[in-house]
Amino acid sequence: MIHVQVHLYTPIPNLITWRIRVMIWGSCTVFFSPVPQQRTMSALAAVLVAPLAAIVLHVANYNATAQIEHKTRCFTKILGANAVYYYAVYLVLSAAVRDAVIHSAIEASLPELQWIVLPVEIATIVGYGLFVVGILLNLWTLHALGIKGMYNGDSFGFLMDAPVTSGPYTIFSDPQYVGTTLAMFGAALRQQSIVGYALTLAMGIVFWISVKFIEGPHLQRLYSKKPSSSSKSAKRQ
Question: What does the entry list as the binding residues for S-adenosyl-L-methionine (predicted)?
Answer without folding.
Answer: 132-134, 215-216
